[in-house]
Write a structure and sequence with these properties.
204 residues, alpha/beta, Maf protein, 34% helix, globular
Length: 204
């Protein structure tokens, strides 16, 4: 059984690599903005997007008529602050504006996950939510951080595993969820729903 990570997220890929989980990636090209304007509930939104990505990956694999079976894992992450959904910054000015809002405040990071199997219809959805509190930052410190470019392609315009870890005061919840993949919940889903144990990676 092979694992497909239906994501091109650098942080998600590196998390799997650090845990020595063998996997392949598959790009799904799902238009996330289309659904963001239609669904108000952020938890339902991320779970729906994860499900769509998982099913899209399944369809792509079926088109290739693969003879192997796959477990497909998909995820979607958003930042919620004061009732507002914050996605990925389009440019440095937008990234500055986002970090200025999050500065010296607590925000919620929500990740929806969907796990399915290529040759079976079952799909399991779940989510995780982590609270992240930033230290107070000056405008100059935010600008210096944005010079490193790690904000690009990340919800909330930061990456917790890199330089942004310097200005994180507190994390309440799953640290891996802040990287976009609540690995603890994925471990439980794979173990109990698909009879796959990530601690036995040599069998994958």
């Amino acid at each position: 059984m092979k694992i497909i990570l239906a994501s091109e997220s650098i942080d998600r890929r590196e998390l799997f690599k650090r845990l020595e989980i063998p996997f392949q990636t598959l790009k799904t090209n799902v238009d996330e903005k289309k659904f963001q304007s239609e669904i108000d509930d952020p938890i339902e939104l991320v779970m729906l997007l994860a499900e769509i990505k998982a099913n899209t990956a399944k369809n792509l694999l079926k088109e290739k008529k693969s003879k192997e079976d796959y477990i497909i894992i998909a995820a979607d992450t958003i930042v919620r602050f004061q009732g507002q959904i914050i996605g990925k910054a389009k440019n440095k000015d937008q990234a500055f504006s986002i970090l200025k809002k999050l500065n010296n405040n607590t925000h919620s990071l929500i990740t929806g996950i969907a796990v399915t199997q290529l040759n079976y219809p079952k799909i399991i959805r779940n989510f995780d939510e982590t609270l992240v509190t930033f230290l107070p930052l000056s405008d100059k410190e935010i600008e210096n951080y944005l010079d490193c470019d790690e904000w690009k392609g990340r919800a909330g315009a930061y990456s917790i595993k890199d330089k942004a870890s310097i200005f994180v005061k507190k994390i309440e919840g799953s640290p891996s969820n802040v990287a976009g993949l609540p690995i603890q919940k994925i471990f439980q889903i794979l173990k109990h729903e698909f009879n796959i144990n990530l601690l036995e990676t040599k069998k994958l």
